[in-house]
Amino acid sequence: MEFGDRLFWGIMIFLAFISLWLGALEAYTPLWLGIVLGAVAGVLFVKFGPTPRTDEDEAK
After folding, report:
1. Is residue 58 part of a domain?
2. H-helix or E-strand containing 12?
3. Based on the structure, what is the number of domains in the chain?
4. Cβ proximity of 47 and 9 under 8 Å
C-alpha cells in the first residue's frame, strides 16, 4: 500500500469509528471521546499500516 492508500483507509477507519460510536455508544459516552479514539486509530493505521511491496517481496 502506498501512503495515499493508507491515508484513505485511515480516514475511512475514522469515519466508520465515528458512525459506530454514534449508533451504539453515544448514549453512554460523549462524542468527543469517539472522535479522539477514531483519530488515534486512523493515525496508527497510516503510520503502521501495510507498506508498499518491493521486488524482493514478489520474488519470494
Report:
1. no
2. helix 3-20
3. 1
4. no
Residue in this structure with the C-alpha cell 485511515, named with its chain if needed: 10
- Comparing 44 with 27, the larger pLDDT belongs to 44
In angstroms, rounded to a whole number, what is the distance separating the alpha carbons of residues 51 and 54? 9
Report the amino acid identity of residue 3.
Answer: F
33 within some domain = yes
- Distance, CA of 25 to CA of 44 (rounded, Å): 22
Cβ of 17: how many Cβ atoms within 10 Å? Answer: 18
> Within a domain: residue 55?
no
What is the grid cell recorded at 39?
A: 483519530
pTM: 0.76
Q: Return phi, psi of residue 15, to 5°.
A: -65, -40
